[in-house]
Specification:
- The protein has three helices and 30 strands.
- The protein has a single domain (11-396), classed as 6 Propeller (Neuraminidase), CATH 2.120.10.
- The protein has helices at 11-18, 43-46, 368-379, and strands at residues 29-30, 39-42, 47-54, 64-70, 73-78, 84-88, 91-96, 109-115, 120-125, 130-135, 140-146, 151-158, 161-166, 176-182, 185-190, 195-199, 204-209, 223-225, 228-234, 238-244, 247-255, 264-271, 274-282, 286-296, 299-308, 311-319, 324-330, 342-344, 347-352, 385-391.
- It is mostly beta strands.
- The longest helix is centred in the last third of the chain and has 12 residues, at 368-379.
Length: 398
């Protein structure tokens, strides 16, 4: 599809002049976002330094859910958030799986962060309300810190310093709404404001509030960008924050003008009296998720989940103060979605796994990159492989 030029208010020109330094972008963007404005583009056209690597292991690996770390040294977890694989230079170094109810064990670590510089791995054990720390590699239990807040996300800044996004603990909230979901289930809606906290293993220090009481927002995780951390929040506006040298700074806001996000509804799936799932359902066209942001000059790139004409897409958004481009990226001859699991200094890392035959689109000839991916999958004995790439400079210019 052809991309239209999207407009921004004139104030952006003034803001650009005030933010002309390195890695500064304009604040106060107002973008007229046309949801029909999505271009389909081959990864080989938009990206460069494309590499396909096997994850070398002497044992079968579970299906990988998410990644955390840097491009050549990261932790990957399985779909149950119970087994964690330390991957360094394309090889399995060690794995962590201490599931149980013992003092140094966990049921799952759904929120986790890896700090390669310190060889430390942190994870939130929700069954015990504690953040656990392990040395890598080999994995070795180090410590456990109780925490009353349930973190939406956590990131290790340094040894004994974490940033977490969280609402206040339930017993400290003054404004809690209880909604009867039926079937004996209730949903607690905490109306108190959410915030970013610094955690030193003992106490929490509130750094700033992300939302006012009663605001609806989707919390996001911090992404490493060199020595800094970036966090892009989906609220009534997309707001980008940078954490650097102990300070948090709001550096950009994308306002979608008059377009309103649709109201979500609750859908309960049940089998008899048993609730099998509670889902949040959005009606119509919408966009959510603001993942893996990176900045280059006055350009902001991030990934988002989009529903358009009753179909769902994983898309790349590239925003400047005057334009917003949205791309659906494909690999010629393959039917996989291009969605990274991590970005590190501009390098995106994406895991590809499963039966190689199911990845081939029979209606299209395999591209050279598609052939590399299929051959690497074949040779890796059904273990996952990973794809790494950078966006070409011309797509990151104003």
């Amino acid at each position: 599809m052809k991309i239209k030029t999207l407009t921004a208010i004139a104030i952006c020109v003034t803001m650009m002049a005030c933010n002309s330094g390195k890695n500064q972008i304009a604040d106060g963007w107002v973008i007229d976002n046309d949801r029909d404005d999505m271009e389909t583009i081959d990864l080989q056209e938009i990206a460069e330094i494309i590499d396909v690597k096997p994850i070398v292991s002497d044992e079968p690996l579970d299906e990988i859910e998410c990644l955390n770390g840097i491009s050549n040294n990261f932790i990957a977890c399985n779909r149950q958030y119970r087994t964690f694989y330390h991957i360094r230079d394309g090889k399995l170094v060690d794995k962590l799986n201490t599931v149980g109810n013992g003092p140094n064990e966990y049921q799952e670590l759904r929120k986790f962060s890896f700090l390669p510089a310190e060889n430390l791995f942190y994870g939130y054990n929700s069954s015990k309300g504690a953040i656990m720390c392990f040395q890598t590699s080999p994995f070795k239990y180090v410590s456990k810190s109780e925490i009353k807040n349930y973190p939406f996300s956590l990131v290790a800044v340094g040894r004994d310093q974490l940033l977490i996004t969280s609402q206040p603990p339930l017993d400290e909230c003054e404004n809690v709404e209880i909604e009867d979901m039926g079937f004996g289930a209730v949903m607690r809606k905490i109306k108190d404001s959410s915030a970013v906290y610094s955690f030193d293993g003992h106490s929490l220090t509130k750094l700033f509030c992300m939302a006012k009481p009663g605001d609806e927002f989707s919390p996001s995780a911090f992404t490493r960008s060199g020595k800094d951390l970036l966090m892009l929040l989906l609220m009534p506006k997309h707001t980008l924050y940078r954490y650097s040298d102990g300070q948090i700074q709001k550096i950009a806001t994308i306002d979608y003008g008059d377009m309103e996000m649709p109201e979500p509804s609750i859908k309960i799936e049940s089998q008899g009296a048993e609730i099998s799932a509670i889902k949040i359902v959005f009606e119509g066209d919408y966009c959510h998720g603001c993942d893996f942001p990176q900045i280059k000059g006055s350009t902001l790139a991030y990934w988002q989940r989009m529903a358009l004409n009753n179909k769902k897409y994983n898309c790349l958004a590239i925003a400047t103060p005057n334009n917003l481009h949205v791309y659906k990226i494909y690999i010629g001859g393959l039917n996989i979605e291009v969605t990274p699991g991590m970005v590190d200094n501009g390098v995106y890392t994406m895991v590809i796994q499963g039966d190689w035959e199911s990845k081939i689109d029979s209606n299209e000839e395999l591209s050279p990159l598609g052939k590399r991916i299929i051959e690497t999958l074949k040779q890796n004995d059904e273990n996952p492989i990973y794809l790494q790439f950078r966006l070409k400079n011309k797509y990151l210019k104003d």
